[in-house]
Amino acid sequence: MSNKEFTISQGTQVVAQDFRNSVLKYACEILQRDIKKVTSEKDTDNEIYLTVDPKAPVEGDDFQISLTAPDKVTVSSKTSLGVMYGALAISRNVLKIDDFWYWMNTVSAVEKNVKWTNFDMHLQNYQTEYRGWFVNDELLIRGWKDHDSQRYVWQRVFETALRAGCNVIVPGTDVQSQTNRVPAKEFGLTIAQHHAEPLGAKMFAREYPELEASFLKYPDLFRKFWHDAIIEQKGTPTIYSLGFRGQGDKPFWEDDTSRKWDDQAIADVVNGVIKEQYDMIKELDPGAPMALNVYGELAGLYKKGLVDVPDDLIEIWADSGYGKMVSRRQGLDNPRSPLLDIPNPHHRKRGLYYHVAFHDLQASNFLGLLSNSPEFVSSELMKARSKGLDTLELVNTGNIKPHILYLREVAKTWIKGYKARTNDKILNDYVNNYYSEHQQEIISLYEDYWKSVVQYGTHADETAGDELSPFIIRRIIKTWLSGKNKMADAGWIVGNDSLADGVKKIDGMITSKLPDWAELVLNFKKLMLNLNEQDAKTLYGDLYLITLYQADGLKTLHLVIQAYELSMVAKKDDDYLKPFLLADEAYHTMDDINVAQSHHKSTKWYDFYKNDGYDDMPLTAIKLRFLRHYLRTLGDTADEDDWERRFIKAPGEARVMTLWTTVRALSDDDLAKKLRERLIDKL
């Protein structure tokens, strides 16, 4: 063996300088696991040694990899995190383990051993100092176990974040973030905090459910929460989030009715709270970085010149939730204030809170891809960089798996020299990395996805994700069956329209797109018949399911609107036959999504979606089943036997009334099937 070659095999041991250092311990475990995964034979006993070395000839979290003896490679860095990055670089560049292997189910090539000759590897030259994931709205992750373990799942979250280049993480929301912040730090990640959880403190309303969440009434209780949170985290890698919204992700004054709140009154409280938090951190954890989320209501106060805070905070500005660098819509208020040209007279460092996943209870993407293209995201992020919003970047990852395409590209944008890329370049890179055949056909499917999305607003970026359909369906049913005239929470899409006018407007938005979605689903099914098993599994979980959420969701919404409009002009009982059948079709179309999830081609993921409480396709199916029976109740008799007797039974049977009936009434499912068969040419 030459002095510039090292053979990795089953005989290679990964050893840490100090296994009491949790970061080094996990780095060893990950690299050792990957060596066992990709090699099949023992060549010789040798060693990869991981060490923190204050004299390492690198800066920051960079690392050096050296062949220090014929049977020993040394990975050294001045920091534990740097050593972790070095171990992952070996996994990525030498063992060819993909950064997103866990979420994409990639299968690594296995060889007898791996010959390693190039040791000149270093940390990427990052433009963004603090690079983070915000694992937010993590319902699917929260409700799912792998290896019968939640701990294992979160460890893979932390590993993947590090592989993508993160050095910062918000490890969940509320109780989850507090549970996970110590395990995340054990992997070497710095902890940042949700904008609704300043300083990472406990929620007031959770600890004191019987008290009004008012800082003005109970300032000492709030101060104790902040104090305890700092003491718990002091001396550990933490970026403290300052501010005060209230309990949960909403304004504090909605829970505080002690006075009338105008902008100045709100600003006085916010500024005072931030100054108190700032001083507390300076006293208890001096030198810790601090950030201010200029999010939601605070952005409006900032633009009015009412925000007065210390200048050494990092300002974090947020996109619209749909990737556009304008202010987020708040209910009916949608000023779309540009965020990239806001003056910075105090010359504060600035960062970004950016959504590739978003849950707004209305039209965003929770289970599926962002409804705006990766090319759009790449362009927006580079605009933000050109304006200096690159000190800290937190990316809302949602539940990670549905959003790999975007997370992978965002990780590239953190590197110096990155230039905005087109869909063509992004998709070619992505598809060729994860698929072994039919790449151009798969790229076309991705392209057709964004061509098919519904635009719900007047601006090109106001496009609908997977949440739109179940959200609107449930509100139509609630409004319709309760005899009300307007849908709650839907003014953002229908204005002040009545239910009748609102559904007509929505149907006008979606109807022209239905053939595109139907064709896309058909093209998926055709292509998956010709893919090898691994590629078919990948495509099913990566884009086919996501497409079904849109295609079947929008089709269901259209059917519900048709059923509503026909039922509103019904004059006799039989006029409810077609609405009944439309509701039946809507129910089965929505339920097809649930079936597709639970019959995932990869058994690892079949139960990943069970805790979805946002799109909640199962709940939507239940409501559609209820709607179907409601329409039968309106049109059939009280004993639910008239439609069966007149349209399904043989004439002789229907007219013999001696025993009135000989069997129980048909179920809604069976009745709908038989009616559709008999009346297919008549309705």
Offer a quick outline of the entry:
By secondary structure, the chain is of the alpha/beta class. Helix content is about 45%, strand content about 10%.
The neighbouring-strand order within the major sheet is 9-8-7-14-13-12-11-10
Proportion of helical residues:
40-55%
Let me know the number of strands. 14
Which structural category do the helix and sheet elements fall into?
alpha/beta
In total, the number of domains comes to 3
What name does the CATH topology of the largest domain carry? TIM Barrel
Q: Tell me, briefly, the overall form.
A: globular
State Rg: 29 Å
- Average pLDDT value? 94
Would you give an account of this structure?
With 683 residues, the protein is of the alpha/beta class. It has helices at residues 22-38, 80-93, 101-104, 139-142, 150-163, 175-186, 204-207, 219-233, 263-284, 297-303, 374-386, 404-413, 423-434, 439-452, 468-481, 491-494, 499-510, 514-530, 533-568, 577-598, 617-635, 642-647, 651-655, 668-679, and strands at residues 6-8, 12-16, 46-52, 63-69, 72-77, 114-116, 130-134, 168-170, 190-191, 240-242, 290-294, 314-318, 350-355, 392-396. It has an 8-stranded parallel β-sheet with strand order 9-8-7-14-13-12-11-10. A 4-stranded mixed β-sheet has the order 2-3-5-4. The chain has a two-stranded antiparallel ribbon with strand order 1-6. Helix 1 links the parallel strand 2 and strand 3 (46-52). Helix 14 packs antiparallel against helix 18 (514-530). It is globular, with a radius of gyration of 29 Å. The relative contact order is 0.07. The model has no long low-confidence stretch (mean pLDDT 94).
